Amino acid sequence: MTDYIRAVEKLLGQLTTAEQQDVVEYYREYLLDAGIDTYQEAVDELGSPRSLARKVLADYSIRMNERGKADAPQSRSMVQATKSNVRTVWLIILAMLSAPVTIPILLLIVALFIALAAVLFGLIVAVLTVFLSIVVVGVVGLVVGLITLFQAPWTGIFYLGVGLFFLGASLLGWLVLKWVSSWVIGGLSWFAKKIYQRFIPRSRAERGRKL
Predict the structure, then answer these.
(1) All structural domains of the chain with their residue ranges
(2) Integer Cα distance of 10 and 75 in angstroms
(3) Which among 16, 67, 93, 150 is most buried, taking Cβ atoms within 10 Å?
(4) What's the farthest any 2 CA atoms get from each other in the chain?
C-alpha cells in the first residue's frame, strides 16, 4: 500500500504541497480503513496510480477553473481564462485516456473531440486568413501611398488613408480573433467537463471525497 501511495504522490507535482498532502492522506486513510495492504489490492480498488493521479489533477483543475469564474470573474483576463481552459481540457483528456472506459464510449469521446477540434481549427484558420489579408492590404496601401505621395499627392494621401484604415481594422480583427478563440476554447472546456463527469467511472473512494 505504501508503494502505491508513493507512486500516486510522485504524479501530483502540479498540485501545491498542501494539496498533495491532502490527497495522500485521504487515500492512505481510505486504504487503511478498507484493510487494503498490498499494492495490487490498492490497484484493484482505486485503479493504477497514474489513472488515479490524472483524475485527481483533472478534478482540481475543474474546481479551480470554476472557482476562478465564480470568485473573481472581472479580474481574470481573457488570456488567463484561456490558459486555464486549455489546461483543464488537456488534463481531462489525459484522465479519460487512462480511465477504464468501454470501447464504444471511448470511440464516442474521441469522435466528439476530433469533431470539436476540427471546428476550432477551421474557425481559427478562417479568421487568421482574413486577419492576414487585411494586414497585407494595409501594408500595400501604405507602401503605394508613400511611393506616389510626392508624384501625385492626392493619390498618395488616398492610399495612405486606405493603408491606415486596413491596419486599424487588422487591430480590431486581432481582438475579435482572441475573443472568438477564447469563447470556442471555453465551450470546448465546458463540453469536456460534461463528458468527463458523465462517462468516467469513479471508485467508492473518489465518490466519497470532496475537494
Answers:
(1) 47-208
(2) 33
(3) 93
(4) 92
Contact 162, 149 (CB under 8 A): no
Backbone phi and psi for residue 101, each to the nearest 5 degrees, phi listed first: -95, 160
Specify the residue for cell string 495490487. Answer: 40
Inter-residue contact 44 to 50 (CB < 8 Å): no
Sign of CA dihedral 178, 180, 184, 186: positive
* Residue 23 CB neighbours (<10 A): 23
Report yes or no: 68 and 76 within 8 Å, Cβ to Cβ.
yes
Q: Is 202 strand, coil or helix?
A: coil
* DSSP letter string, 125-173: HHHHHHHHHHHHHHHHHHHHHHHHTTTSHHHHHHHHHHHHHHHHHHHHH
Long-range pairs, 144-152, Cβ under 8 A, ≥24: none
Measured over the CA atoms of residue 134, residue 135, residue 139 and residue 140, the dihedral's sign is: negative
Q: How far apart are CA 17 and CA 107, in angstroms?
A: 36
Mean pLDDT of each 10-residue bin along the chain, 211 residues long: 89 88 90 88 89 90 77 60 81 79 68 72 78 85 85 85 84 78 80 80 74 60
Whether the Cβ atoms of residue 201 and residue 100 lie closer than 8 Å to each other: yes
Which cell numbers in the block locate residue 9? 504522490
Which cell goes with 54? 490524472
